[in-house]
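Q: For a teaching handout, I want to show students what a protein-ligand complex looks like in token form. Below are the inputs, and the small molecule is S-adenosylmethionine. Please produce the holo structure.
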Amino acid sequence: MQKYPSPLPEWLQEIEEKAEADEVPIIRRSTQRFLSFFLGIMRPKRILEIGSAVGFSALLMANFDPDLTELVTIENYEPRIAEARENFTNSPFADKITFLPGDAAKIIPSLEGEFDLVFIDAAKGQYPDYLTLVDPMMRPGGVILADNILQDGFLLMPKEALCRRNRTIHKRVREYLDMVCRDKRYVTDVLPVGDGLAMTRIC
Ligand SMILES: C[S@@+](CC[C@H](N)C(=O)[O-])C[C@H]1O[C@@H](n2cnc3c(N)ncnc32)[C@H](O)[C@@H]1O
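A: Here is the structure, written as tokens, with S-adenosylmethionine included.
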């Protein structure tokens, strides 16, 4: 099969390869392509990411957003914090990235200013809480992207077929979708990109 060249710069490919080797969950290739494409069109100035892991998606967004002034990203898992910090410091975007280690639910209320784009990619069971917290910080016309909405197909299965943990995630992800679909201030659709990407525009 023909191999096409990666659109990522070499230093970012290395972070991707290491994350994959260490089994760190990072955005899938199709989500990478979508974000690269979307950021080039939307050109958000200020981005909030919930769930940095080792910094791969934050750096990808910084790399493909020509108008970025600040990207704030939050991670609470201690073993990933040092690696994320190192990846940010060694990248060409160190001056644009604000890395906040800790629990997103506690950190978000302390943030100031508006965001053009929020990328939610942390604890799936907390998606509804993250939405409630970020809603007042969105600029009109801003976009919220939530990853892993289809949960490898779990979302479409009857809850009786799932184990207890997945039932809770299933319920909370559905609650998130219900919130973004019912509220008339939002326009939402779920894109079959990666593991399902819910895309919400604030009218
Ligand atoms: C799917 S990974 C993020 C991947 C990253 N966005 C990427 O693609 O490069 C989800 C991350 O969210 C973090 N996380 C989960 N709950 C969190 C919380 N309450 N606050 C901050 N980070 C959290 C996890 O530790 C994990 O590293």
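A: Two things your students might notice: Strands lie at 46-50, 70-75, 97-101, 115-120, 138-146, 186-191, 197-202. The helical segments are 10-21, 29-42, 56-64, 78-89, 104-107, 127-134, 164-182.
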